[in-house]
């Protein structure tokens, strides 16, 4: 019995430094008050792939208070927001824009959307930003995406 416990404890300890212990899957919430639950998301470059899940905890429908999660280089964010405003509904994102690194679908209250993307092409310590591209939301719903 002691041997089994030692093996399980050692296995758990050895995984703590791996991608499993480094939160390669992250969840962020958005609400009807134009707020994300996080202003910063940190991931390890060792993750390879990252999955971001956006949960809309509000009650308003997508056409009134839609949210998405969009990742770009910080320098590209405002340009993508402007292009998204011009693109219009349903996603408020320019289709095929290479400045968009990753994005969830636009969702309304009670809904959830996820996106999985490769972080190996991104630079550890690079300057990345996430935001909501629904018109007017960018001013309040944004944060830093940090690769360590």
Number of helices: 3
CATH architecture: Sandwich
Radius of gyration (Å): 18 Å
In which range does the helix fraction lie?
10-25%
- Count up the domains: 1
Record keyword descriptors for this entry.
148 residues, alpha/beta, Immunoglobulin-like, five-stranded mixed sheet, three-stranded mixed sheet, 8 strands, 20% helix, disordered N terminus
What does this 3D model show about the protein?
This protein is an alpha/beta fold and 148 residues long. It has one domain: Cupredoxins -  blue copper proteins (Immunoglobulin-like). It has 3 helices and 8 strands. It has helices spanning 2-15, 62-65, 77-87; strands at 25-30, 40-43, 49-56, 70-73, 102-103, 112-118, 128-131, 142-147. The strands form 2 sheets. A 5-stranded mixed sheet has the order 2-8-7-4-5, with no helix packed on it. It has a 3-stranded mixed sheet with strand order 1-3-6, with no helix packed on it. The longest helix is centred in the N-terminal third of the chain and has 14 residues, at 2-15. Mean pLDDT is 88; it is low at 1-21.
């Amino acid at each position: 019995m002691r041997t089994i416990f030692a093996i399980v404890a050692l296995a758990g300890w050895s995984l703590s430094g791996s991608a499993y212990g480094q939160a390669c899957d992250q969840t962020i919430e958005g609400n009807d008050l134009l707020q994300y639950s996080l202003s910063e998301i940190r991931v390890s470059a060792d993750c390879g792939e990252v999955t971001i899940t956006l949960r809309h905890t509000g009650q308003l429908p997508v056409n009134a208070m839609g949210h998405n999660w969009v990742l770009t280089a910080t320098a590209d964010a405002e340009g993508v927001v402007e292009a998204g405003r011009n693109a219009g509904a349903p996603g408020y994102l320019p289709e095929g824009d290479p400045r968009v690194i990753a994005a969830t679908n636009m969702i309304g209250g009670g809904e959830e959307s996820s996106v999985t993307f490769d972080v190996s092409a991104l630079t550890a310590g690079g300057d990345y930003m996430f935001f909501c591209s629904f018109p007017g939301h960018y001013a309040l719903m944004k944060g830093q995406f940090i690769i360590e």
